[in-house]
Write a structure and sequence with these properties.
about 35% helix; about 450 residues; Uridine Diphospho-n-acetylenolpyruvylglucosamine Reductase, domain 3; Alpha-Beta Plaits; Uridine Diphospho-n-acetylenolpyruvylglucosamine Reductase, domain 2; seven-stranded antiparallel β-sheet; alpha+beta; five-stranded antiparallel β-sheet
Length: about 450
């Protein structure tokens, strides 16, 4: 890497777009994974439009300076950890949202928050379904970068299912426009899908066209408690045999108690696990789906099953589930897992995680988008205790190995980032890794885009 040409960067962009003050730059050095290995950028660029993104990438390409794209900084895998001597390209000022209610799409700049898109769509009786637990603070660009999911994806799918078009700035500053407002389009290679989930390693997304659907019907909520997390997982498998609920979330006993310690919400501390399920089916079909879920819970040993069609009451339980991450964070430092398996193997995955926690004498509360097999085991440790750090690191690696051994994945929605890249070859194998490097080298031959994310 050449010496950082600060003067030419300042000349290339309008006043106020480039931050160079060390304390300001440090604020953009890491995401919510708190990656201890994150570097300190030499500058932070906060563009207000795509032209400024292009100018930044042209400058970076010319001087071979690494660029780490960043959204709201809410990522959980070190995907936007800064590189020493590089720049962070933060899209947080690009937040325009435009709704086309006739075509049922949202045209959204990358820095717009997920919640802002939902609110704008709701004003037209429409809905943008992808809903990460951090939807109030995460950006659309970051959601696209990791192909984020959320609580409703068991029925409605993940981010990629709603991306119809993208504007992307490549490593050399070239701007490409992919897709559009049309629902069906198979002209050419599926390049649109290539950029979704690429974590800023292939290009910088500046704008997206997102598919919207009619507003969700008011759901009915079912809450079931179980003596063990394995019994709860068995209920998930049983429900999945015949229907897709609009939500199917799991909390184990450790996560239930973490939430109750953080904020008393009336959850059953003695339960081995809790399932939170919803149906938004129309009319009588809703009651029929709830009846099927209730029967499945009873058949697999539920202690108690509670059903409510009061939306406010149901939302209280959803809020408790969304509070799991800050509740765990309050207990110590976290290594954030995001492993998934085929749904029938969910009981084996959860049993394995419990065994790993026991063998390393470490706390690993689990919450899960159980309906699609995506679990979030969160390894809690004390960074001031070398033994705790060592045990947490070993447990983190073993959980990924366990998921792979069950035909699963090391990440369902958080992305590989820098925290999980060492495990990626084990999941993908040498042939797919080689192809991945070929694609990366073709689009970013100088390797300046988010170096160290996904690939070593």
């Amino acid at each position: 890497m050449t010496e950082f040409p600060l003067a030419s960067l300042l000349t290339a962009l309008p006043e106020g777009v480039v931050l160079t003050e060390p304390a300001s730059c440090a604020n953009y050095s890491r995401d919510l994974s708190h990656d201890a290995k994150a570097g300190i950028p030499a500058a932070v660029v906060r563009p207000t439009n795509a032209d400024q993104v292009q100018a930044t990438m042209r400058w970076a390409s010319e001087h071979r300076i690494p660029v780490v794209p960043r959204g709201a900084g809410s990522g959980l895998s070190g995907g936007s950890s800064a590189v020493d001597g590089g720049i962070v390209l933060s899209l947080d000022r690009m937040q325009h949202v435009e709704i086309d209610p006739i075509t049922r799409v949202a045209v959204v700049e990358a820095g717009a928050l997920n919640a802002a898109v939902k609110t704008a769509a709701a004003a037209h009786g429409l809905w943008y379904p992808p809903d990460p637990s951090s939807y109030e603070i995460c950006s659309i660009g970051g959601n696209i970068a990791t192909n984020a999911g959320g609580l409703c994806c068991v029925k409605y799918g993940v981010t990629t299912d709603y991306v119809l078009g993208l504007d992307v700035v490549l490593a050399d500053g070239t701007k490409i426009v992919l897709g559009g407002k049309r629902v069906k389009d198979v002209a050419g290679l599926s390049l649109l899908k290539l950029f979704v989930g690429s974590e800023g390693t292939l290009g910088v997304v500046t704008r997206a066209i997102l598919r919207l659907i009619p507003a969700q019907s008011t759901p009915t909520t079912l809450v079931a408690t179980f003596p063990t997390v394995i019994a709860a997982a068995a209920a998930v498998v049983e429900v999945g045999r015949t229907l897709r609920p609009s939500m199917m979330e799991l909390m184990d006993q450790a996560s239930i108690n973490a939430v109750e310690d953080y904020k008393q919400m009336g959850l059953d501390r003695d339960a081995g696990a809790m399932l939170l399920a919803q149906s938004d089916a129309p009319g009588a079909a809703c009651a029929a789906e709830i009846a099927i879920m209730e029967a499945a819970c009873q058949a697999t040993g539920a202690k108690e099953v509670f059903v409510t069609d009061d939306p406010d009451e149901g939302e209280l339980f959803v809020a408790a589930r969304r509070a799991a991450y800050p509740a765990m964070e309050a207990r110590g430092s976290l290594l954030l897992e995001d492993v998934g398996v085929p749904i029938p193997l969910l009981p084996q995955l959860l049993a394995g995680i419990s065994a790993i926690a026991l063998s390393h004498d470490i706390e690993i509360p689990v919450v899960a988008h159980a309906g699609d097999g995506n679990t979030h085991p969160n390894v809690i440790y004390n960074p001031a205790d070398p033994s705790s750090v060592q045990r947490a690191t070993a447990a983190f690696a073993e959980i990924m190995t366990l998921a792979i051994s069950l035909g699963g994945t090391i990440t369902g929605e958080h992305g590989v980032g820098r925290m999980k890249r060492s495990a990626l070859p084990e999941q993908l194998g040498p042939e797919v890794m080689a192809l991945t490097y070929k694609i990366k080298n073709a689009l970013d031959p100088a390797g300046i885009l988010n170096p160290g994310a996904i690939l070593e």
